[in-house]
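hey m, so remember when u said the tokens were messed up on ur end? i reran from scratch. heres the input so u can diff it against urs
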Amino acid sequence: MNKAQLVEAIADKLGGRQQAALAVDIVLDAIIRATVAGERVSVTGFGSFEKVERPARYARNPQTGERVRVKKTAVPRFRAGQGFKDLVAGSKKLPKNDVAVKKAPKGSLSGGTTTKKATAKKTTAKKSTTTRSATAKKAAAGKKAGAAKSTTAKKTTTARDTGAAKKTGAKKTAKKAQAKKTGAGNAPARKATGRRTTAKRTATRSK
């Protein structure tokens, strides 16, 4: 059966040949695009389509027997589902008035396993990113708090040193002032003592 025959086989059920051809094209296009993108397209009871990576290898030319290097490539692969296998093997009989493949549950047509894995990876990445950002914020807050404490301690020490210096300067100034006052008080006494001594000497000479 080719594509045209497939369209004819489902035309009566879809209301015409054009509708059947459009349905076939849409289904095949969706499967091909998903497989090329690396997704696994699984249809319950029918099978699954997936992209397989083949590494570089050596092969032999069947005509000449020469060894040839084959480059790395990717190929599509189809795996028949268990229901399809059972029908082909004859262990199950094809229904006469019903479709061979039952309606698939929601989400089974577009690689549910691959999608779930991708979603789980994204969720894990988001959680790790959130944890890292929270740790970085805590570390930054700790650094700021430490810097603030050290700044406060420096200011306190500076203020204490300044106060002590002012007190010491005030004490020295007071001592200097007292010394000046003491010197000013002693000066007249010395002059008076000198006058008395001179008067005594003059009186002695006159006698």
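this time it looks ok to me. The longest strand covers residues 47-54. if urs says something different then somethings off w ur setup not the seq
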